[in-house]
Structures are given as C-alpha cells and as structure tokens.
Design goal:
The complex is a heterodimer of chains A (310) and B (385).
Chain A: E1 2-11, E2 14-24, E3 29-33, H1 40-47, E4 55-60, E5 63-64, H2 70-75, E6 77-81, H3 92-96, H4 98-102, H5 107-120, H6 125-128, H7 138-150, E7 156-160, H8 168-185, E8 188-193, H9 196-202, E9 205-210, E10 213-218, H10 220-225, H11 230-236, H12 241-247, E11 266-267, H13 272-282, E12 286-290, E13 296-301, H14 302-306
Parallel strand pairs in A: 3-8, 3-9, 6-7, 7-8, 11-12
Antiparallel strand pairs in A: 1-2, 1-4, 4-5, 9-10, 12-13
Chain B: H1 8-23, E1 27-30, E2 38-40, H2 42-45, H3 54-65, H4 70-101, E3 107-110, H5 112-131, H6 136-156, H7 163-170, H8 172-206, H9 211-223, H10 226-243, H11 245-249, H12 257-281, H13 285-293, H14 298-328, H15 340-349, H16 353-381
Antiparallel strand pairs in B: 1-2, 1-3
Helix pairs in contact in B: 1-3, 1-5, 3-4, 4-5, 4-6, 7-16, 8-12, 8-14, 8-15, 9-12, 10-12, 12-14, 13-14, 14-16, 15-16
Classes of the chains: A alpha/beta (310), B mainly alpha (385).
Chain lengths: 310, 385
C-alpha cells in the first residue's frame, strides 16, 4: 500500500532519515516507535508529503507519490496529530465534514457519514453534532479528531502521537476504541508513538527506529522474544520484557479446562499480565476462570504463567 | 447604613445626578447667541404636570435599596432610559416656553446639569443592563431605542427653540455639506487603509523579518501630532500639483482633501496592520497543520481557516481605525479639507458655544454609532468563543 525505498531526508546538516526502506501492507496496523528525534514523525509526514523526501522513492498504491498533487494524496490518507487541531470556528459536524466537503459529496451523504462516525467513536450525535471544539474535553476533542480523519473514507490513517496529550485513563479508552476500529474497518493504520506499551498493545507490526534508521521490524512478540540488538532490549525495558510478554497473551490461552479453582473468578479475556497482578494481590497460586458469559471454564495456575504446558 | 444600600454604583450615580440637578443650570437663557446666559435649574422647571418626571427619578432612587434581582435591574434600565428622553423633551419644552415670552434674539442653551445628567444616566443604564446579564447586544438595542426617540423629538419640532437647533436652522446648507464632507473624508481614508493595511499585515505575518522595522515606522507616524503631519504634507503636495498639472486638476494640492486623506491614512494604518498580524497570529499552528494534512490547498487554508479565525480581531481593528479617523478628521478642517471640523472651528473663533456643539455632537454620534455597529458585527462573527 505504501512503500518506502531507500528514503533519506536531511534538515540542514542533520540527517533525519538515513536510507530507510519499509513496506506498509493493506490492513496492517504499523506502529513507528523510537526515542525523540529518531525520525518517526518525519517518516509519517513524508508519507502524505507534509515533508518532502530528499532521495529514494515513496510509492502509494504502486505509484510514486510525487506524481500526485499533495492535496489529492492527503485526502486519501486520514491524518491525526497530538494537538488535534480542530477548527475552533466550526461545529463538530463541520469539522468532521471537512474532507467529504472537499470531495464534494452530496449533503445527505455527508450528514449520514457524520452521524455514523460520531456513533463509531462513542459520541452521541444529537448531543455533539452542534457543539464547538472549546466545549469538549481533551478526550472528546481527539475522538472528533479521529472521526474527522476517517470521514473521507481514506485508504490509510496516519496518526502522529494521537494520544500523547491525554490522561492515562482517557488514553487507554481511546486505544481500545482504535483497536476496535481497526478490526471492524480493516483500515491500514500507521501510528507514531514513543510509548512502548501503546505500541505492543495496538500494533500488528512494530517498527523501531533510531537515528533515522530501521533497527527492527516485527510483531510485538518477535520484538520482545527475539530482539535484534541490545538497543531493542534496552528500548522495550530490559527488566520488564517478561512482564510485557505476559501482556500480549490472554488467560484463555493458558487456562486448564479440566480443573476448577476457588475464590472470585477472573475473566478469560484478561491479559496474563493482569492475571499476575491478581495472583500477587490475592496471594494465591490458583485462580478460577470464567468466559465472557460468566460460565466457569477452568483454572489458571501461577506456574502456567512461566511456561505454557504444551 | 451600608446594609441598606444594595447597589453602590447606582447610589453614587444618583448622588452625582442630584448634585448636578441642584447646583448646575439645566438650561441657560441669554439675550443673544454670543452672550453668556443666566442659568435655570432643573428644580425650577418642574411645575405643573411636568412633575411627572419625578416618577422615573424615584424609581432610580428605589433601585438603590432593592434586592438586585433581574427585575430590579430591568426597572432601573428602563427608568434611566425614559428619564434621558424626558429630560431632552423637557429642555425643548422649556425653550419653547421661554422664547415665546422673551425677545426674538434671545437664546436658550443646554446647561451643565443637562450634560452631566445625560452621562450619569447613560452609565446607570449600561450598568443596570450588565447586572441584568444583558450583554453588548442589548446595550446596542437600548441605545438605538433612546436615539430613535430623541430623533423623533427633533423631527417633531419639539426642540426647535433650543439654541443648538436654531444654529442648525441658520446653517442648514453649510451643515449638510460639512456632514457629507466628513463622511467623505472618513470613507476616503478607511477604504484605502484597508486595501493597503490588510495585505501589508498579511505580508508582515508571513515574513517575520520585516515586522519590527515596519511597526517601528508605523509607531513613529502615530507620535507625530496631527496638525504637524498635515502641515508637513503641504509643501510636497503643492510641489507635486505644480509639476504634474493633471494631478492638480484632480484636486491634489497642498491644502484640501488630498493631504487630509493621506495623513489620516498614515495614522489609520497602524491599528489595521497590527490587528491583521495579531488576528493571523491567533490561529494555532496545530490547526493549520491539521488543515494541510487533510488536503486543504494553501488558498483554502487562508480563506476557510485563517481568515475566519482572524476576522473578529480584524473587525475590532477596523472599528478602532474608523472611530479614530472620525475624530481626527475634525482637525483636517484646518488645512481646508472641510468637514464638521470647519463648523466647530467657526464656533470656537466666534465663541458661539452652540455652534461648536453643532460641529462636535454629530462627530460624537458618528463615532458612537460606528463603534456600536462594529461591536455588533464582531459579536455575530465570533460565535465560537
């Protein structure tokens, strides 16, 4: 879908991107991660030509992006930034309708699309449609920001630290929302963050950058289990690799179906990381497990966290 | 008894009004237009059924001690407005009564108490409207209603015997020419100022390098006294008219409209340029980045995002500029540009106070009207905040 071939970019004398090659495939959720100044935002902004690359080629749907008008390519890629940037003089409805209006959709279709997107992002259309941005909380503003980016039904969603300015609870809620949107819409998403937990939680593929170069690209599991270098291990947090691995799997994958446990049961959709926390706080070694409907399905042993029994 | 007084502002204003009403002349009767008159106090006028105007006065006094509810404030605003109109009518009525009895050349002028009461009551009305939670929009509406009633009184001939309107009657043609000329000067200044100032502000916003120098020059112009600036332009423009004859035929010269408009434009540029730059600077960078990222063209970003967000500040700049120009245009009469200033200076030179007022009052009215209209427009435009 998007292909970077040996792309380089320098700002003055400093090299921001150095011979970077990367392919974003249809339906992937790519998270670009690295410490600040590693070139992750620049990489994202080169994709929609907010930043022009110096050398190499960038292809979108097999065609060089320099062949498109910048406006045309941007209308096909949703764009969300950390500071949201809602238009303060427009209502939520007009903000969301920005790209559909540029694409000259018929009015009724725009109206329906706004309703649909507000519902998708868990905002009551009747309540929020006519509000102005300054009447919204930070989390609501970013929900509208995401809705606005999705409005023109873009092929790709580019997100530059979209949840960086939100409080932890709101951030978690929006991350869950985004994961759900990725699943139901099947959209290709490229997200930039410096938060390794956000990356491991959301990504189908994590791309770790350092000094404008690609350090490792792989699934969250590959990054944690087979780090390509000491740098990767340091970046994900050497002392917490095990904990983070537990965060990638759910109780359902380790439950012993033929046994039963005691005490208050835990849900099988819990991550193993959360289950570990329950073991420690309750000071037990076995937990009863129930499924989504509350039916008892088995038992989880503390030792199962260390090693799966297969 | 501080606990009894519920509205200290109104109390202060009422005390001031009472002092003016008792110790200053409400109208003055003079044997002719140039002599000082003998004052007649407001208390002397309230015989017979004229005493009705005591009712709004009492309502204002009661307002001081009442619980400051929405209703109380509305009552004060209404009483104050009515009283203003009643006082204007009373002055006119007294002038009619006196001039019937006195010799033909005698004049009845408005005295100090009249003006003080007008200002004090105006403040009381504005304060009451604000306390009632009625914002700028209602202040404009109430102001317009009062003005409409006073204009109605003037049109009915009720005020014709006041010296001010006698001066008007004597100089009707001159007055109308001057008024038209004044509007012409203001228009001929504000339009080119916008045409030059807004693009200049935009350019300075884009190229931050030149902004400090440009603002230094514009600030310096503001510090030159207006009469000096008018004077400075006489020599170069006279020379220009002499060397380029067709310009002279068009009316460009050392004195007259041309130097006035040029000088006023130079003054007017600073507020316009500054508000344009400030307005554009108010647009958050993130908003522009988001707009670009969604595929708006630079032209669309300017017209759909930057211009509308900057507009309220720009409008307030135009308001300040226009009000300033209306005032400064008075001085332009000194270099033969005409306008209401010529009537005012004529009055000053012949020490006919009512003629001075005939020149000044329309200027004040014009400035206040323009101010109100632009405030109203800003309110309409700026709904998002």
């Amino acid at each position: 879908m998007i292909e970077l071939q040996h792309v380089s970019k320098a700002f003055g004398r400093t090299k921001a991107i150095d011979d970077l090659s990367l392919t974003v495939r249809q339906g992937e959720f790519i998270v670009l991660i690295g410490s600040s100044g590693c070139g992750k935002s620049t990489t994202l902004r080169m994709m929609n030509r907010l930043v022009e690359h110096d050398s190499g080629r960038i292809l979108f749907e097999g065609q060089e992006i320099r062949g498109f008008k910048p406006q045309d390519i941007r209308r096909r890629m949703g764009y969300v930034i950390q500071s949201v940037g809602l238009f303060p003089h427009w209502t939520v409805e007009r903000n969301i309708a920005t790209v559909p209006e540029l694409l000259q959709w018929p009015r009724p279709r725009i109206r329906d699309r706004v309703t649909e997107l507000l519902q998708l992002l868990d905002l009551d259309p009747a309540l929020f449609r006519g509000r102005y941005p300054h009447q919204l909380s930070g989390g609501q503003q970013q929900r509208v920001g995401v809705a606005r980016a999705l409005a023109g039904d873009p092929e790709v969603l580019l997100m530059d630290e979209p949840f960086g300015a939100l409080d932890p609870l709101t951030r978690l809620a929006l991350q869950k929302e985004l994961a759900r949107i990725h699943i139901v819409s099947g959209k290709t998403i490229v997200l930039v963050t410096h938060d390794i937990d956000e990356a491991l939680h959301l990504a189908t593929r994590v791309v770790l950058l350092d000094h404008g170069r690609l350090v490792q690209s792989g699934t969250p599991l590959q990054i944690l289990a087979h780090p390509a270098s000491e740098f990767v291990t340091d970046f994900v947090g050497r002392s917490e690799v095990g904990i983070k691995l537990l965060g990638l799997q759910t109780v359902a994958s380790r439950v012993r179906r033929n046994e039963s446990g005691e005490g208050a049961p835990v849900a099988d959709s819990l991550t193993l990381r959360e289950a570990l926390s329950v073991f420690v706080t309750r000071q037990v070694e076995r937990l009863a497990v129930v499924d989504g409907d509350g039916q008892a399905i088995g038992c989880l042993h503390l030792s199962d966290l260390v090693k799966s029994r297969e | 008894m501080p606990t009894l007084i519920r509205n200290r502002v109104l109390a202060t204003l009422v005390v001031m009004a009472a002092a003016a009403a008792f110790w200053m002349a409400f109208v003055a009767l003079a044997p002719n237009r140039l002599m000082h008159g003998t004052g007649i106090g407001l208390t002397d006028l309230m015989q017979g059924w004229r005493g009705v105007i005591v009712v709004p006065m009492l309502l204002l006094c009661i307002g001081i001690f009442m619980r400051p509810t929405w209703r109380t404030n509305l009552m004060v605003a209404l009483a104050g407005s009515l009283l203003v109109v009643a006082l204007v009518w009373l002055a006119g009525d007294e002038a009619t009564r006196l001039s019937a009895a006195e010799p033909k050349l005698s004049r009845v002028s408005l005295g100090g108490a009249f003006w003080v009461l007008l200002v004090v009551l105006g403040l009381a009305v504005v304060d009451a409207l604000q306390r009632a939670g009625l914002g700028a929009l209602w202040q404009v509406v109430v102001g317009a209603a009062i003005v409409a009633l006073v204009v109605g009184l003037v049109a009915s001939g009720e005020l014709d015997q006041l010296s001010l309107l006698k001066e008007y009657a004597n100089r009707q043609d001159v007055f109308h020419t001057a008024l038209l000329r004044h509007l012409q000067i203001v228009g001929a200044t504000v339009v080119p100022t916008l045409v030059i100032g807004v693009p200049l502000g935009w350019a300075l916003f884009r190229t931050e390098r030149f902004a400090p120098a440009a603002f230094a020059i514009l600030n310096m112009i503001q510090t030159v006294p207006s009469i000096a600036l008018f004077g400075l332009l006489i020599a170069p423009l006279a020379l220009l008219a002499a060397t380029v004859p067709w310009l002279g035929q068009l009316g460009v010269g050392g004195i007259g409209l041309a130097p006035a408009v040029i000088a006023l434009t130079l003054y007017a540029l600073l507020p316009i340029v500054r508000s344009t730059v400030a307005g554009l600077g108010q647009v958050p960078r993130s908003v522009i980045e988001a707009a670009a990222g969604m595929g708006l063209t630079p032209r669309q970003i300017f017209w759909k995002v930057q211009a509308p967000i900057a507009l309220p500040l720009l409008l307030s700049g135009i308001r300040i500029t226009t009000v300033q120009t209306i005032g400064l245009a008075v001085v332009a009469a000194l270099i033969g540009a005409g306008g209401l200033g010529s009537i005012m200076f004529q009055g000053l030179l012949s020490s006919a106070l009512d003629l001075v007022l005939l020149g000044v009052l329309p200027v004040v009215a014009m400035a206040v009207t323009v101010d109100a209209v632009f405030r109203f427009m800003t309110l309409m435009v700026d709904r998002s905040h």
